[in-house]
Amino acid sequence: MQEETTVWVLKETFNFSQFIISLDTRSALVSDAFLKTFGSIVDMWMSLIISLIGVFGNIITLVVFYRLGFRDTVNITMGAITAWDLVRVLCGSVHRLYGPVSLVSEAVGVSWKNVTLINIVYMHIVAGNVSYVIGGYVALERCLCVSFPFKVKSIITPRLTMAVCLTISISVFASQFPIFFVFEYTWVYSQLYGQDVAIYQYTHFYSVHGQKFMESYRYFSFLYPLLSLSFMVVSTVIISYHLQKASDFRNKVSAATKHQDGTRSELSTRDRQVVKMLLTVIALYMIVLVPRVAQFIAIICEAEFFVLRFYNNLFWVISNSVSFLDILNSTCNLFIFYSMSSRFRYCARSMARHFLCCTASPKSSKTTRDTT
């Protein structure tokens, strides 16, 4: 017996001033039961735990970068990526609180999920696109620095890097901001829960501007990851080539010139370490971007592969998987920088020792007063 999936479908009146949600039962590739189980395990509990870890880790990372200062272009770009990653994991954790809330009241949990879905989840997506584009810029910038070290380093200043990161953030966010006006929530009585629950539906803005905007939104959502992935792949290949070329050159240096070029070699070692750290960040982005680009190709090729469409359940299974990879990637910043940057590691340890000393001092002072 073939399972049938319930899909929410929007009905619009002639004056577009009212919207009526009805049920259209169609055969689908993913059943409601599988979507519920998959969403509960992967999208709810696993993503919630990782998101909370990411919030803690990205806050620490931003504090460390603040202590290090933003006089270096690497700190600026990595700080910008960390800030947007913090937005992503914050949105991820707030949305997925519907899991713990459902343990108290399943109806309230459903309402929490649907209400945050139309704003918090899309904020997560838009912040991800900003982060991707900045990541693509980092790859391009590092590629130019490795290819033309003396020319580019004098041009790409910290002030210019800050301006580029701000421009990317504002431009990408503004181009997709209208998505927050496409959906709205309404309350309907649920016989299953015996009380009103919130569901999401299209807005009046969608009836007037929705078709044109959604088309541009889809292409922008496809273009940003695709361009970022392309820049990352090409830049990584070029950077790897120059690193290999530099390694071969160092191997050919005679023993007599080692002492003479000692300072130059030491500086190149630091530069290579920075490049390796950035390549690690870029590689993680590429791992996340490949399935996301594939998803957007499917959205463009199949109109029914979207929210409130025929393949609604399949769309959410894939979206949950991609979102989980996004959250996992957004949580890795602290571990990457701590393990691969000696300056970051030293500053983080100094802050930890200072924090422990400050928390221990009041206790020791109280013990001394009690003893006397």
Automatic annotation (TrEMBL):
A single cellular component GO annotation: plasma membrane
Gene3D superfamilies according to UniProt: Rhodopsin 7-helix transmembrane proteins
Any matching Pfam family: 7TM_GPCR_Srw
Membrane topology category: Multi-pass membrane protein
Transmembrane segments: 44-66, 78-98, 118-140, 160-183, 222-243, 274-294, 314-336
InterPro entries in UniProt: 7TM_GPCR_serpentine_rcpt_Srw, GPCR_Rhodpsn, GPCR_Rhodpsn_7TM
Keywords assigned: G-protein coupled receptor, Membrane, Receptor, Transducer, Transmembrane, Transmembrane helix
Domain of life: Eukaryota
Main localisation: membrane
GO terms for MF: G protein-coupled peptide receptor activity
Subcellular location as annotated: Membrane
Residue ranges of every copy of the G-protein coupled receptors family 1 profile domain listed in the record: 57-337
Name recorded for this polypeptide: FMRFamide receptor-like
Naturally occurring in which organism (per UniProt): Biomphalaria glabrata
